[in-house]
Specification:
Distance between the termini: 67 Å
CATH architecture of one domain: Roll
Helix content: 10-25%
Number of helices: 13
Strand content: 15-25%
Structural class: alpha+beta
Number of strands: 22
Strand order of the largest sheet: 18-17-1-14-19
CATH class of one domain: Alpha Beta
CATH topology of one domain: Dipeptide-binding Protein, domain 3
Radius of gyration: 25 Å
């Protein structure tokens, strides 16, 4: 009898939240409307000094960049709000047509560049044609070159982007600024050869460079950059007129990036994604590839998600008119197995050698792991695969003993249907998350700092980056204990430069 092992595990991944919190805090000074965003006393100052690591102003530079800074300088077609929904930015409205392959964006007539010039459809179309150019020496183009079929401008305020295939994450991951796709000033940079964009001085020529965000860099010195508020910012000019991003420590910054003193520890419920995965043994002799693919196809993720009830957010199509919901059609399991030489005898699947198949399923004794594992077992039994459920109290030790890898990591909050997604590199339902260069850079950066991770997390990152081993099942909120200087903070994890609700700033007595 062949015993194939499947382990079931759940792990919450903690991110370096301090920088994200601060990014959200600082955004209060420079983003949003004058009516809805409060401005505590610290941010009523006409000038504020920020402690930051040195960064590159060129969005395509191979040198160190800063996503928060890029969001201060540039806008995108849409943005993702605090609830994970797509909202307006440069595009005032949009429609999705042709079976979710065509996106029609109508530009906001008030959106302008720093010099007051309106953002045109030419700027948007040229930008996305650049991102879809496989010869462009920029990471963003490597994912869109295989996704964008055409970009057209039927009139002076409309841009139409047609995709090669439906992509449920297009709005959130591509059209939003958080994934390295800002709208560029085509009138200024379109004459630059694409091979020189990542080295072009036009992105560093202060104060003549051009952007559209709430702040613009005005002057650069050996210790940092001086920024001024964008008087033409279409969401309202920031009240704090001047920002100083400072490289060196003296004089002490008003807010230091990641090096600020705490007033009291506070527990935040931080709604980043926590994935529960079905993990397959990475040893091919233990779980042959046809059986791994068949298990992916056999599992009904929607039914599994119902075992957790209200904890599952994705039970409706992601966007209006989208064809994508939680359930998804995978290749038929019996087709996969029969093609590989497996056959059913008396309702039970047998290997090509004629031995009955059995799967061993391991789960924790309590909690949602057990509930979902029981549901998985019932589904496999009904499909003709006898399944033995083993319960353990120490999943970490069990994984090590059986050479399993926990690969449950997600750095970006992505509101497309994770429940339905099979992230196998060879899967026809892989819509590009692992092909996304920005995501791979994030994973690589985490993987290159093992001192910040436990051994198991480090192995998980390696497995995730090199060979995603399983199928994502469910997401939920995770509790993160942090030590903030910000009290009563409503954080937007999808875009730190979005609206923050109630908050106050406590100054440290011992800076």
């Amino acid at each position: 009898m062949n015993a194939y092992s499947v382990h079931f595990s759940k792990k919450a991944t903690s991110a370096a939240i301090s920088g994200i919190i601060l990014a959200g805090l600082l955004s209060l000074a420079g983003c949003g409307t004058k009516v809805t965003i409060p401005h505590p006393r610290l941010f009523d100052h006409s000038q504020i000094v920020l402690g930051l690591r040195p960064f590159a102003l060129n969005p395509f530079s191979h040198a160190q960049s800063n996503a928060w800074v890029m969001n201060m300088m540039y806008d995108s077609l849409v943005r993702v709000n605090a609830h994970g929904a797509v909202s307006e930015d440069i595009a005032a409205s949009w429609q999705i047509q042709k079976n979710s392959r065509q996106y029609i964006f109508h530009l906001n007539p008030h959106a302008k560049w720093w010099n007051g010039r309106p953002i045109s459809v030419h700027d948007v179309a040229w930008t996305y044609q650049l991102y879809a150019n496989p010869n462009a020496p920029i990471a963003a183009s490597q994912s869109l070159a295989r996704l964008v079929a055409s970009v057209t401008t039927p009139n002076a305020d409309t841009v139409v982007i047609t995709l090669v295939r439906p992509d449920p994450g297009f709005l959130a991951n591509v059209a939003a600024a958080g994934d390295d796709h800002p709208i560029l000033p085509a009138f200024l940079v379109s004459r630059i050869p694409i091979a020189r964009l990542n080295q072009s001085p036009v992105f560093n020529r202060l104060p003549d460079m051009m952007g559209s965000g709430p702040y613009r860099p005005y002057a650069e010195g050996p210790n940092g950059i001086r920024w001024i508020a964008n008087a033409h910012y279409f969401l309202g000019s920031p009240k704090t007129h001047i920002l100083l991003t400072q490289w060196s420590t003296p004089p002490q910054p008003d807010v230091a990036w990641g090096h600020w003193h705490i007033s009291q520890t506070k527990t935040l419920y931080y709604p980043r994604l926590t994935y529960t995965m079905l993990l397959f043994n990475m040893n091919a002799s233990s779980l042959p590839r046809p059986m791994r693919l068949a298990l992916n196809a056999l599992l009904n993720r929607y039914e599994l998600s119902r075992t957790l009830g209200a904890a599952i957010p994705m039970t409706e199509p992601v966007w209006p008119s989208s064809i994508y919901a939680v359930s998804i059609h995978l290749p038929k399991a019996d087709t996969i197995l029969r093609h590989a030489g497996y056959r059913q005898i008396g309702g039970i699947w047998h290997t090509p050698q004629g031995r009955p198949v059995q799967v061993d399923l391991t789960a924790m004794r309590t909690g949602q792991d057990l509930h979902i594992a029981q549901a998985v077992r019932h589904q496999l039994l009904a499909a003709g695969i006898p399944t033995h459920l083993a319960l353990v109290s120490d999943m970490h030790t069990t994984l090590i003993q059986h050479h399993f890898v926990v690969a449950v990591v997600e750095r970006r909050a992505t509101p497309f249907p994770a429940l339905a997604q099979d992230f196998s590199m060879t899967s026809p339902t892989n819509y590009g998350l692992y092909d996304n260069p920005a995501f791979q850079v994030d994973v690589t950066a985490m993987n290159n700092h093992p001192g910040q991770l436990v051994v198991n997390e480090h192995r998980a990152l390696q497995a995730l980056f090199n060979n995603p081993p399983g199928a994502y099942l469910v997401w939920s909120a995770q509790k993160v204990v942090v030590a903030p200087t910000v009290q009563h903070l409503t954080l937007n994890p999808y875009n730190p430069l979005e609206t923050v609700g109630q908050w106050t700033v406590l100054r440290s007595k011992n800076p």
